[in-house]
UniProtKB/TrEMBL annotation:
Signal peptide: none annotated. Residues 47-125 form the PARP16 N-terminal domain. The keyword Ribosomal protein does not apply. It comes from the Eukaryota. This is Poly [ADP-ribose] polymerase. Gene3D superfamilies: 3.90.228.10. It comes from Zophobas morio. The chain crosses the membrane at residues 314-337.
């Protein structure tokens, strides 16, 4: 692939080797370069201020993809400012991300935001075509099914798409009803899921029980098994370790959305499926039929333990033990205290 030319995987397009595909989002450097640095930073600050939670989560997902051992696959689209003649420059991108201060610090002290950091944040938060995340109230969400408080997320974000994508979705739907279902995945996958969408072709690389496609469920406990906690952005106000489960909207297409259907028994059989698709499962064989509507974000809680506390505060623990030892030596070296202690021991021996 020649440098500077985009190779974009279109929906329903198949290739033999997906590892060579590079997703590059639309980028207009000239548009930003025409503006003065102060205007650019003012726009960035305004964007962060009006949607600080959404920007924070985007950074969390981006950093999770960048630090993943599968970063070449997970980090799609890749920031164009970090693509050079040799291809994707992960080293400089990681260095830039390491220098991103907390968002509340950027709002108070924007001068701490370097040129590279500013360009990256503008691309992540302000580039046209990128979906926008906005934190919403728990009660404002329509869930596919009820669940216990054990599965209640700490944060919920709604995904807002641009007008062009929204128009295409409505055109695909063509008046058909939609179904809500959960999709669980590793946290480092959600950056590409958010930016590129769920892609059914990735299942071709796995052994799947119910045929190739995107697996979803209307039971949260089922999807939760596929959403382990993972490391994200250490400077996030949302925490640094998260699990993410998507609430997706499916177009109820009989041929492309496989599930149990009492009126159509053949619908529960997918191509290359070893068994019938069980209750509460959906297998979507066409990416056009599904989109992410909400993200449920779980923050991993730290469990207090004496061992972990002593490990993290080793110096203070040693100082405390040292002081206790000094006090104990001082007490036991006192002759009057020793005589009193002997009397107590005699009393106990008398009762025996």
């Amino acid at each position: 692939m020649e440098f500077g030319k985009e190779k974009i995987l279109r929906v329903n397009q198949s290739e033999d080797n997906f590892s060579d595909i590079t997703f590059v989002a639309p980028y207009s450097p000239n548009r930003n370069e025409e503006k003065s640095p102060q205007v650019q930073i003012d726009q960035l600050l305004k964007e962060i201020e009006k949607n600080v939670w959404g920007c924070d989560l985007v950074l969390c997902l981006f950093v999770a993809a960048l630090t993943s051992y599968r970063s070449d696959r997970c980090l799609r689209p890749f920031p164009p400012s970090h693509i050079d003649e040799d291809g994707k420059n992960f080293a400089t991108l990681r260095q830039t991300c390491d220098n991103i201060p907390p968002l509340h610090t950027i709002l108070k002290e924007p001068n701490k935001c370097s040129h590279d950091v500013k360009n990256l944040l503008m691309w992540l938060f302000m580039e046209k075509g990128h979906p926008i995340l906005k934190r919403i109230n728990f009660n404002a969400v329509q869930f596919p099914s009820k669940f216990s408080n054990e599965f209640k997320p700490q944060f919920i974000f709604e995904v807002f798409y641009n007008d062009k994508f929204e128009s295409l979705w409505q055109k695909r739907q063509a008046g058909r009803k939609t179904i809500l279902a959960y999709h669980g995945s590793a946290v480092d996958n959600f950056y590409s899921i958010l930016k590129v969408g769920l892609q059914q072709h990735f299942s071709l690389e796995k052994e799947v029980l119910f045929g190739n496609g995107i697996y979803l469920s209307n039971e949260l406990s089922v999807s939760a098994h596929y959403a382990p906690f993972g490391q994200t952005w250490t400077n996030s106000s949302l925490g640094s370790q998260h699990s993410v489960i998507a609430i997706c909207e499916l177009i109820n297409d009989i041929e492309k959305v496989k599930c149990r259907d009492s009126q159509n028994k053949k619908r529960s059989l997918n191509k290359d499926s070893l068994h019938e698709i069980p209750e509460k499962y959906f297998v979507v064989t066409d990416s056009d039929m599904v989109r992410v509507k909400y993200l449920m974000v779980y923050r991993q809680k730290r469990v207090f333990s004496v061992k972990s506390y002593l490990t993290e505060h080793l110096f203070l623990s040693l100082m405390f033990i040292y002081l206790v030892s000094i006090i104990a030596i001082g007490i036991f070296s006192n002759s009057s205290y020793t005589r009193s202690l002997k009397k107590i021991f005699r009393m106990f021996s008398f009762f025996d």
